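CHAIN AND CONFORMATION:

***
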Amino acid sequence: MAIFSVYVVNKAGGLIYQLDHYAPRTDTEKTFSFPLDLVLRPHDERVVVAFGQRDGIRVGHAVLAINGAEVNGRFMADGRDVLEFLGNPANYPVSIRFGRHRLSSNEKLMLASMFHSLFAIGSQLSPEVGSSGIEMLETDTFKLHCFQTLTGIKFMVLADPRQTGIDALLRKIYEIYSDFALKNPFYSLEMPIRCELFDQNLKLALEVAEKAGPFGPGS
């Protein structure tokens, strides 16, 4: 079981803190001969697998490196177009590393803002007055848990679907936020959290939650 990441979103929908705690390894590197038996397509400034899953390489995985050199979106380290390079028989055999695309800071900001809007929509769609909004989203590989405080701050945790004790962890994170961010004289409300003690205590709380599950009295 594992906790993947933590997001803190202010009441206006801005991302003020994000921590990647654990990222499952999805990278797969293989050596290919020509012609390439995978169908690659450009998507969102990246080159991704569109068809032909095999050996751990899945549809949607992006090209991360070619012959050991990291790829920058649709271009190789020397500026050559990835698709043009892979379309040339003279460049084979070639080693390609595929994997899940790493979110950029801007993408994380955008996704946090989108969830803020979905949370509000969920609250408005509820047939009952005073709905809290979206508290959990579940997929086959992770669950997103959300806790909103009375002041509108949202704490979000992405974890393995089998991970227990997330409700208690969310409240523990709120406690850490109150103790080490709000009481910091140099911290301004609604602004990004940059506090070493907050980081240290949050990481410790995540480790405790992964190993022991729910927090007990006095944790």
